[in-house]
Amino acid sequence: MNALAPYIAAAKPYVDLTQPSFWLSIASITFNPTAWNIVARNEYHNKTITRLFGSQKAGCYFLALMIFSFGMLRDNLFHDALASQPASLPPLAKPFDTYLPIALVASGQILVVTSTWALGITGTFLGDYFGILMDARVEGFPFNILTNPMYVGSTMCFLGVSLWFQSIAGLVITAYVYVVYVVALRFEGPFTDMIYAKREEERAAKKQ
Length: 208
Description:
Blueprint: H1 5-11, H2 20-46, H3 48-53, H4 56-83, H5 96-124, H6 149-164, H7 168-207
Helix pairs in contact: 2-4, 2-7, 5-6, 6-7
């Protein structure tokens, strides 16, 4: 740590790495997709939550509540982190200093909400790991313009809030959010494809 001290001090006017709230935000962003992927894979293989709640749907709704609650906690920790950081980002030219952050957050929320609406609760919150599979791939908005609109929308919200607070630390955290989502998708995508491919194989076998 002593070797890093000069660099931490030099960065402090822009990103104050000595603030615990910064690292709590990073930790919560790391925890959420990591934990839910581990829990969901365990559910697929062992049906732990299904056995605990007595049904696939009840178990999925419980997990949805947990994911939503920890998502709210993550957002609150992010706001706390920005509040403790210097406003080190030069402001955008007016009126873009107001319009751009609002547009990013509003667009991001639209992507998140419409994704949830299109997928439903079980489709959004890992229902396929519980064996609750969708009949067909969702191809309407916003999935007709983006492959992963929920992750894109969430990242846009982080970016918009960071610009609103004129926070370089917020931009750093937003970049980390993007990286975490990219890594999560490398695990989620192939596993979900495997689940649906297995269902199609079972359907084909029944027709023979």
